[in-house]
Amino acid sequence: MRRAVFPGSFDPITLGHVDIVERAIPLFDEIIVAIGVNAAKKNMWSLEERLQMLESTFQDQPKVKIASYEGLTADFCKKEGAEFLLRGLRNATDFNYEQTIAQANAKVNGVDSVFLICSPEFSHISSSIVRDIARNGGDFSGLLPETVNI
Ligand code: ADP
């Protein structure tokens, strides 16, 4: 079973995340889209709301499972029997951030990272931009999957 974990905060999930998951579906037998819970991090949407967004977005994808976890992402991968971590790359900043983490995960935990370059039409989308628009009362609906109603 070729299993990957796609970890993130998904605060909220965006069309950019969906693009990465949908393009990765042919590569894996199962993809676990997993919310990493960090008590120190202040999120805009609660864990329950974010899980619900993920559930409704991927309800028609039998290969996609939804989960949340605390602690190290690599430990969660081991627990789930996932040998791969899936990540999306928008630009060089994402790459520089991801590179050392991916190398450490491979060396220390034996979990290899698989990166997909973001589709150009989504490269401007980030959860933090959505939160910014939300805080200022703007319309962010075009940046989110239609199944998400927040
Ligand atoms: P994190 O808190 O780890 O940054 P995010 O929820 O922001 O989590 O993102 C999870 C993953 O999705 C990361 O690999 C990130 O690079 C990727 N990602 C975020 N936005 C996009 C996008 N617009 N296109 C492609 N990948 C994206």
Description:
- This protein is an alpha/beta fold.
- It has one domain: HUPs (Rossmann fold), CATH 3.40.50.620.
- Helix content is 37%, strand content 22%.
- The protein has helices spanning 15-24, 47-57, 73-80, 92-109, 127-135; strands at residues 3-8, 30-37, 64-70, 84-89, 112-117.
- Helix 1 (15-24) links the parallel strand 1 and strand 2 (30-37).
- The longest helix is centred in the C-terminal third of the chain and has 18 residues, at 92-109.
- It is globular and about 45 Å long.
- It starts with a strand and ends in a 15-residue tail after the last helix.
- The model has no long low-confidence stretch (mean pLDDT 96).
- Adenosine-5'-diphosphate (ADP) is lined by residues 8-10, 14, 16-17, 20, 87-88, 90, 94, 118, 122, 125-127.
Major sheet: order of its strands? 3-2-1-4-5
Strand content: 15-25%
Tally of discrete structural domains: 1
**Proportion of helical residues:** 25-40%
Structural class: alpha/beta
The name of the CATH topology is: Rossmann fold
Q: Please state the average pLDDT score.
A: 96
Give the N-to-C terminal Cα separation: 35 Å
Highest CATH level, the class: Alpha Beta
- The name of the CATH superfamily reads HUPs
Number of helices: 5
Task: Report the count of strand segments.
Answer: 5
Shape: globular
What's the architecture, going by CATH?
Answer: 3-Layer(aba) Sandwich
Whole-angstrom Rg: 15 Å
